[in-house]
Specification:
The complex is a heterotrimer of chains A (631), B (323) and C (256). Chain B has nine helices and 18 strands. Chain B has 323 residues and is α/β, with parallel strands linked by helices. In chain B, helix 3 crosses helix 4 and helix 5 packs parallel to helix 9. By secondary structure, chain C is α/β, with parallel strands linked by helices. Chain C is globular and about 65 Å long. In chain C, strand 4, helix 2 and strand 5 form a beta-alpha-beta unit. In chain C, helix 2 packs across helix 5 and helix 3 packs across helix 4. The chains are: A mainly alpha (631), B alpha/beta (323), C alpha/beta (256). Chains in contact: A-B, A-C, B-C. At the B-C interface, helix 3, helix 4, strand 7, strand 8 and strand 9 of B face helix 3, helix 4, strand 7, strand 9 and strand 12 of C.
Chain lengths: 631, 323, 256
């Protein structure tokens, strides 16, 4: 049957003049493409080399490439309808690879796919199916951009995008139309030329602004840094972070040119959502403008004209931007790199920041309190001191050691460990892990803290650490690697989840809404373990934005120490969202989240959920004699 | 060598309370060493001051008078006292440990090849002088060596002014010779910090109010206490957030950091964000209904009670004490 | 302006205090060291003056080898060069003896302005700067919160008791002791540390300075004070508790 149905009409053979014309036009188009693409490529290649980039393990890169580029997984999952439309457009392009090659060959009299043969027929039908989906997809996206106008695409209407949409539609239309005209006829020839000209007009536009992602983004996804929020080490005596163009590395430049301006990063950014200057998309585009206007050899400051100086310092490092980006842009190393450039050179003049740095220069914790306060707490709780005989070192951290509420959480967790018979000890002396200064870009102070702590841990012969704070966990496990080999560390939710079967349960009365901390969720991929703990203590309720989409509490990136923020308070926005679920309890797994919500609820006059860490949820089911003392 | 000499400092035209404390200290030292105690009054017009001093158990009161000593300058005081000491060759010189004394006494001692033993909190047999080291975490016992004058300054409140024994003393005048050109610094008139802006950072006494106050209408309760104490009013974050007090009065991690002599926290629980702003205070008093409030962990003194009952009577008690 | 800042390395604030075997000082093993707080403000004042008026900031510090790290920290914050007066037994000198040592190192430099912190966090004498002024024949003022250079010399803001202040005018050269809190401190930066690597630190042995001196004041013994800080809860009726509180504030805490 199929052999009798319509197939793609091919024009009769072209004359020499036509072939020459085609060759000339194609060359011109290619030339124009290269003329635009070459400077961009050179700017990327002339950027500084990334010191710690390793191609291996290639397997993981290939996997990411297949999942994110070929299968469009992130594109679809995080924005389903537009994502699917885009996926069809992309798959359409992929399917058309052979078609386009054949099409050009036909123009030179060397067509290799026979429309009459079974393979040609099959392939052309397949391509046609994709063409329909692609045309529908691009039409849908056009309507979205020009009529629905989601705010993440920005105020300015991009006529260029409209034009490209039209071209893509035309490509599909001219292809499909060729099924309905007789082969070898004049209509076929016109359609061939229409398709060709559309293609040749399209090609030089590709390197223009975001359409470059067609060429670059598969590469960008493949060449990622290797892990989430991977902060590269500074190299040599003159490297202070991203200060000027000369500091931009090849990966950063590549990523800046890959931006498709979809705005998913900004859509999920807590700062952008609460009236701050920071807009992650604008940061990336600011870098791109810088590269276009100044180039990678420029000594002009990145902050100021191209990127507002305050913007990087409004970032909580929640990671939503990097997580959402479908083309592999890694925003966190860029934002932290910009912070480093300002802080490591002393250009950042902020009273609270200076206070934090001075507190850690002169003392042991980020709160500026005397270490004797922690000693008093340890004594009062009668925590054993780690001496190498216990299984775990219980890391208190700044919040666990000094904050009254953090202490309650630690005390309750210690009570659970005691109930389970797990041996643990605390270090005699702890210094702050350095998380806030690391995220703020103070490499001098971070190195000092990391090295001092690593030495203390090594001296005490610690092999396993458990902590109630996701920031401590992340910093110890990942960021300290630059200065030594940290012991293995896990978050208390991971510990508790493992031992749930041995822990008593309260009858499930409370509804508990669980808030995923950024540094436990997106940074560490731990979503299920805390939920298991919550479910054992009540009925789990999910917030509208949960798991990878959890909305930050506002404390990260050192911001908990930086004083007042302008605009709405991030913590209040999230607290309202969580309270609106109607749950009786708000379950947290991070002492910073806990403190931020406590403040936010404290400012409210309406009833608010009871605020409990998962350790407290677990401890309340323990027999009274074992329950934590709290303060 | 002639006895124990105490240098008296004038405050608002009278002998300052801290100088009486130094007199008491000097008298104690006199008893320990069996030496007579005399007083020095440096200044330009010291007659009235001398009359006050003459009512204490001292052997002599010396008015160290010169026009150049009308306003305090280090050069003036050093030159004048040095000349007196050349003549009298004291065994001991006792100062009150004031900002003024800290400005000249070390230099004066140095010129006489001595080191000042400053900020002494007790004097015992020896004589042994005790002072605090490492921000009060260590006590040190000092002794003087050699045959020269021993210079000592005593800490405010370490000795009691009402222990200065009364008696009668003969008053005399000593006029040093000072060339105005020798006075190199030109001091200006003392002034207060700007009255318009709230400067919690330099306030010595602070009364701070928290959520325990419940409503803005109740603030006068705390304002009265602050007025009675002569203290600045401060608040924890929720009070300022509600607009009951201006943001400049907020103490805490996102507000001011303060380290006054006295911090009286009323109805404040002691959340970490507030604690980090005031933990450096020398003396912390907490008044709170909740015996488990974290503020009590860092307080020196605490009253567990209803602030609406405690504050009024406390204000009364403060007023009485200050009379 | 050539500004010389005398700084001291002191045990960190959080240090655990244990008396050593001789009972004459604390056990220094396991102590961490840092720049004395008011000296940090003196250094900051110096750096700000240099930024405004040009010139050079030199730091000088006396003590054993470990003092070198604090000198480097000062260089990292912006000082141009350092002088380390090497001495292993500074503790045997009294305040005058230490000042004589420093004066001998400072004198050849002939600075326009000599700054020190108001007092040290460990011994807390608060005298070094004032004695240095006397030894070097410089006019001085203490408890300074703010320094301004004028045509005639300096105008400084001095702190007085009970919330009063005073401006004092001084000619140059002069010496000042700087009170903490008068200005914003800058934090140490990576760039500062890297640049500091090439700055000069001149080492001078204490013995070579010829400032040996027999102490007239000796610290004979140290001990831990009886009273440890603990919360005194005052009980009774509100009236009784209030009265007890006032009594304590007046006579025990001595803040009223």
């Amino acid at each position: 049957m199929i052999f009798a149905s319509p197939t793609l009409a091919e024009p009769e053979h072209f004359s020499l003049a036509e072939k020459l014309a085609f060759a000339a036009l194609a060359s011109a188009s290619l030339f124009l493409f290269l003329r635009r693409f070459d400077p961009i490529l050179r700017r990327i290649l002339r950027s500084k080399r990334d010191a710690d980039f390793h191609l291996a393990p290639v397997g993981r890169r290939l996997w990411d490439f297949i999942a994110e580029v070929m299968l469009q997984a992130k594109v679809i999952r995080q924005r389903p309808l537009p994502g699917l439309a885009h996926a069809f457009v992309f798959w359409g392009f992929c399917a058309f690879a052979l078609v386009t090659l054949n099409h050009a060959a036909v123009g030179l009299g060397m067509g290799f796919l026979d429309p009459a043969g079974w393979f040609g027929r099959l392939y052309f039908y397949l391509a046609a199916a994709f063409a329909v989906a692609c045309a529908a997809g691009i039409a849908g996206l056009f309507v979205r951009r020009f009529f629905v106008r989601p705010k993440w695409l920005g105020e300015h209407l991009s006529w260029e995008s409209g034009f490209i949409a039209l071209l893509i539609f035309l490509l599909m239309a001219t292809y499909l139309a060729a099924f309905f005209v007789p082969g070898l006829g004049p209509e076929a020839r016109w359609l061939w030329w229409a398709h060709t000209l559309t293609l040749l007009v399209f090609l030089p536009i590709i390197p223009h602004t975001k359409h470059l992602h067609l060429v670059l983004s598969p590469l960008t996804v493949f060449l990622s840094r290797g892990s989430f929020s991977h902060i590269p080490p500074l190299v040599g005596d003159e490297d202070f972070g991203l200060v000027a163009g000369t500091d931009l590395t090849q990966l950063v430049s590549l990523q800046a040119y890959s931006c498709v301006e979809c705005g998913r990063c900004t859509e999920h950014c807590p700062a952008a959502n609460t009236g701050k200057t920071l807009n992650p998309k604008e940061i990336v585009l600011g870098l791109r403008s810088y590269l276009n206007e100044r180039g990678p050899a420029s000594e002009e400051a990145l902050l100021g004209k191209f990127i507002p100086s305050i913007a990087p310092f409004e970032c909580t490092t929640c990671g939503s931007c990097e997580f959402q980006c479908p083309v592999g842009i890694e925003h966190l190393p860029i934002l932290i790199g910009l912070r480093r450039g300002a802080v490591n050179t002393g250009a950042w003049d902020n009273d609270y920041g200076a206070k934090l740095f001075l507190a850690l220069e002169r003392g042991s914790n980020a709160l500026g309190l005397g270490a004797s306060e922690r000693d008093k707490f340890v004594q009062k709780q009668a925590f054993p001191i780690f001496d190498g005989t216990q299984e775990y070192c219980l890391w208190l951290g700044c919040m666990g050691g000094y904050d009254p509420k953090g202490r309650e959480i630690v005390a309750d967790f210690a009570a659970v460990m005691n109930y389970l018979g797990t041996s643990f000890g605390v270090l005699r002396k702890e210094k702050c892990t350095g998380d806030p200064v690391r995220r703020l870009g103070n490499d001098l102070l971070f190195q000092q803290l990391a090295e001092a702590n690593l030495e203390a841990l090594a001296q005490s012969k610690v092999t396993k650490i458990v902590s109630i704070c996701p920031h401590c966990v992340r910093t110890i496990q990942e960021d300290w690697k630059e200065f030594g080999t940290p012991p293995t560390i896990e978050h208390h939710s991971e510990f508790l989840a493992r031992h749930l079967d041995r822990l008593p349960r309260l009858p499930k009365e409370d509804t508990i809404v669980y808030h995923d901390p950024c540094y436990l969720g997106r940074y560490r991929n731990v979503y299920d373990e805390p939920r298991a703990v919550v479910s054992s203590g009540g009925t789990l309720v999910e917030a509208p934005r949960h798991r990878e989409r959890s909305f930050c509490c506002g404390a990260g990136g050192g911001l908990a120490f930086l004083g007042e923020e302008k605009g709405e308070r991030v913590s209040h926005v999230r607290a309202d969202e969580l309270a609106a679920t109607g749950a009786q309890v708000l379950g947290t797994a991070c002492p910073f989240c806990n403190t931020m919500f406590r403040d936010a609820f404290g400012a409210k006059n309406s009833t608010t959920p009871q605020l409990l860490d998962i350790a407290q949820l677990t401890a309340r089911a323990l027999p009274k004699a074992d329950a934590g003392d709290g303060n | 060598m002639s006895g124990v000499w105490i240098v008296i400092e004038e405050r608002d035209g009278r002998v300052g309370r801290i100088s009486w404390e130094a007199v008491a200290a000097a008298q104690q030292l006199g008893k320990l060493t069996g030496l007579p105690v005399a007083a020095i009054l440096p200044g330009a017009q010291t007659e009235a001051l001398a009359a006050e001093a003459a009512g204490k158990a001292l052997t002599r009161v010396v008015r160290l008078e010169h026009a150049a000593l009308a306003d305090y300058t280090a050069d003036g005081f050093i030159l004048a006292l040095e000349q007196l000491f050349e003549k009298e060759k004291p065994a001991y010189v006792v100062f009150p440990h004031t900002y003024q004394v800290r400005d000249y006494a070390p230099a004066l001692a140095a010129r006489m090849h001595q080191s000042l033993i400053g900020d002494v909190v007790s004097i015992s047999e020896g004589p042994v002088f005790v002072r605090q080291l490492m921000q009060g975490r260590l006590s040190g016992e000092y002794r003087h060596a050699g045959s020269g004058t021993c210079f000592v300054s005593v800490q405010s409140g370490a000795f009691r002014a009402d222990h200065a024994e009364t008696g009668t003393a003969a008053v005399e005048v000593f006029s040093p010779s000072i060339d105005p050109a020798q006075i190199r610094a030109k001091p200006g008139q003392p002034f207060r910090g700007s009255a318009q802006t709230v400067d919690l950072g330099s306030a010595q006494l602070i009364v701070s109010v928290g959520r325990g106050i419940k409503e803005a209408e109740n603030l006068p309760l705390v304002q009265d206490l602050a007025a009675a104490l002569g203290a600045e009013l401060a608040a924890s974050r929720p009070i300022c957030d509600n607009g009951w007090l201006p943001i400049e009065r907020q103490v805490g991690s996102s507000g001011q950091s303060v380290a006054p002599k006295l911090y009286l926290a009323v109805g404040i629980s002691g959340a970490i964000q507030h604690l980090v702003g005031m933990k450096g205070s020398q003396c912390i008093v907490a008044i709170n209904k909740d015996p488990d409030a974290p503020i009590f962990e860092i307080a020196d003194y605490g009253i567990v009670g209803d602030l609406f009952e405690v504050i009024p009577v406390l204000t009364e008690a403060v007023r009485t004490a200050k009379q | 302006m050539k500004i010389l800042v005398a700084i001291k390395q002191v045990p960190e604030r959080d240090a655990q205090i244990r008396i050593d075997s001789s009972s004459k000082w604390i056990n220094e093993a396991d102590l961490q060291w840092m720049l004395n707080e008011s000296d940090a403000f003196a250094l900051e004042e110096a750096l700000q003056l240099k930024e405004k008026h040009g010139g050079e900031v030199i730091v000088v510090s006396a003590g054993p080898e470990r003092v070198g790290s604090t000198i480097r920290e000062a260089l990292a914050k912006g000082a141009d060069r350092g002088i380390h007066v090497e001495s292993d037994d500074l503790g045997r000198r009294d305040a005058l003896g230490v000042a004589r040592l420093l004066a001998a190192a400072i004198k050849p430099e002939n600075p326009d302005l000599l700054l020190t912190g108001l007092q040290s966090d460990d011994l807390g004498y608060g005298q070094t700067g004032v004695i240095l002024a006397a030894l070097l024949g410089l006019p001085h003022s203490s408890l300074i919160l703010h320094v301004e250079k004028t045509e005639l010399g300096l105008t400084v803001k001095r702190e007085l008791e009970e919330g009063w202040f005073q401006t004092v005018e001084l000619p140059l050269p002069a010496a000042l002791t700087i009170q903490s809190g008068g200005t914003k401190l800058r934090y140490a930066t990576l760039m500062g540390i890297k640049r500091a690597k090439t700055k000069e630190v001149r080492r001078v042995a204490a013995g070579a300075l010829g400032a040996d001196f027999a102490a007239t004041v000796n610290l004979e013994r140290v001990s831990l004070p009886q009273k440890q800080k603990s919360t005194q809860l005052l009980s009774g009726t509100p009236k009784e508790a209030a009265a007890a509180l006032v009594e304590k504030l007046k006579f025990e805490a001595r803040v009223l």
